[in-house]
Design brief:
about 160 residues; alpha+beta; ph1033 like fold; about 25% helix; DNA-binding
DNA sequence: GCCAACGTTGGC
DNA sequence: GCCAACGTTGGC
């Protein structure tokens, strides 16, 4: 099992939106970056865990955890002229863009802000924290994943 | 709103 | 293949 971080702007699609879906599941469509596409197509597997990150939010934060319920398959919005993500150059016989399906596992409440993450020494090499990082689907190491969950537990404990 | 960092496009 | 111009991302 591998770990990932998926970015979404909450005013477009939030973790709350995912929780409200039938079966709390959605297709992660609309990714139009080749590096992110390669991860979705080739690397993300059923059972992998995902941090759901809110970008362009106040504050930017990890808002929840999801699991992958379907591995990479062609993104149907690329072929839909009505979609904002329509790509007329993508050939259905050789699709350019891929999606996976994810299901919400649980919210992280309150969310863990980017600034909190920046204070964790274990995350010094994390892609999310790299200046200028824009990758919307990014791998998370097991050490990074565990450090973030440990911070969440420590926070709960401190509140009691 | 600003702007740095980044990815893509297209002329050459 | 180079690289300038452009559009986008995303924190602040």
């Amino acid at each position: 099992m591998a770990y990932w971080l998926f970015k979404s702007e909450p005013n477009v699609y939030s973790f709350g939106n995912l929780m409200s879906e039938p079966d709390r599941t959605t297709g992660w469509d609309g990714v139009r970056n080749y590096q992110a596409r390669n991860f979705l197509r080739d690397r993300v597997q059923v059972g992998d865990r995902v941090f759901f990150y809110h970008s362009n939010a106040d504050p930017p934060c990890i808002a929840g955890i999801a699991e992958v319920v379907r591995a990479g398959h062609p993104d149907p919005t690329a072929f839909d002229p009505e979609s904002d993500h329509h790509d007329p150059k993508s050939d259905p016989d050789s699709p350019t863009w891929y999606q996976v399906a994810i299901r919400a596992v649980r919210a992280i409440e309150p969310p863990i802000g980017l600034r909190e993450l920046g204070g964790l020494p274990e995350l010094a090499g994390m892609e999310l924290l790299r200046k200028g990082s824009r990758l919307s689907v990014q791998p998370v190491t097991e050490a990074e994943w565990n450090a973030i969950l440990a911070m969440e537990r420590a926070r709960k404990k401190a509140k009691r």
